[in-house]
Amino acid sequence: MNFHILTLFPEMVSNGLNTSIIGRAVNAGLLSIEAVNIRDYAFNKHQSVDDYPYGGGAGMLMQAEPVYLAHEAVAKKILGRTGGTDSRRIRTVYLSPQGSVFDQKMAEDLAQEEDLILLCGHYEGIDERVLEEVVTDFVSIGDYVLTGGELPAMVMVDAISRLVPGVLHNDVSAEFESFQDNLLEYPQYSRPEEWHGKKVPPVLLSGHHANIEKWRREQSIIRTYERRPDLLERCELTDKEKKWFRKWLEENMKCQ
Ligand code: ADE
Q: DSSP state, 250?
């Protein structure tokens, strides 16, 4: 999969994504991450890319033309490689607090793309006209305002990349982790068997795989109920699990 990040701070994204699992996947040729400097497409001799907003107001706005030219250059390269003809069909995400909130489902959807363009805004944002022309998806990483789209773009690259086959080495772990099925992951333990007086739950030492699986699923349900009850409402439990959970609730509500 190929990520193309349009930004005024290319070194920020390149440096942030060249280590650990993502860096290794890039070196292995499973991913490519290209950081394109929008300033290289400035059309005046001062290389400025921002200007005052019409109508007044605080701060500066990124101008339409450099963003458009940077997008066109990347789109041309992609179409040259894929044989496509329409640059508007290339998935182009604008990172903004005004977008749909990024989640695992969106990561899974975007991981199907061969090329993904991520457009990072700065200052007070980008001239609306170029967004209308190039952007296919408006995405926020959460309900708070950051100084630019670079960190959100890096968050998206990380979450999407780990779904690309081969990136995690064992595909099983991508499948069964938090948010699969809208359930949070169960607690995990490693050696020693006892630490600070706390023992590893005996079922995990039993070697009984069916019991371990059942315990883990139940722990996932309890953890989701305690930490993210909003997710539990969207999760599909079997009739048997519903019955078990009702009983668990009855028993644990009594204790409070
Ligand atoms: N740019 C600034 N804040 C943002 C956010 N929360 N998500 C995505 N892009 C942003």
A: H
Residues with CB under 6 A from ligand 1: 95-97, 140-142, 144-146, 149, 152
Q: Which domain holds residue 156?
A: 2-169
Distance, CA of 18 to CA of 14 (rounded, Å): 6
Residue 30 Cα to ligand 1 middle (Å): 27
Do 78 and 7 share a structural domain? yes
pTM above 0.90, yes or no: yes
Ligand 1, atom nearest to 141 Cα:
7
As averages over each run of 10 residues, the pLDDT of the chain (256 residues) reads 98 96 97 98 92 95 98 97 91 98 97 98 94 98 97 98 93 61 94 98 98 98 97 94 97 80
Cα(141)–Cα(152) distance, integer angstroms: 6
Q: Are 6 and 119 in contact (CB under 8 A)?
A: yes
Between the CA of 95 and the centroid of ligand 1 the distance, in Å, is: 6
CATH code for the domain of 203 = 1.10.1270.20
Atom of ligand 1 nearest to the CA of 143: 6
- Count Cβ atoms below 10 Å from residue 178 Cβ, excluding itself: 16
Picking from 109, 140, 169, the residue at the C-terminal end of a domain is: 169
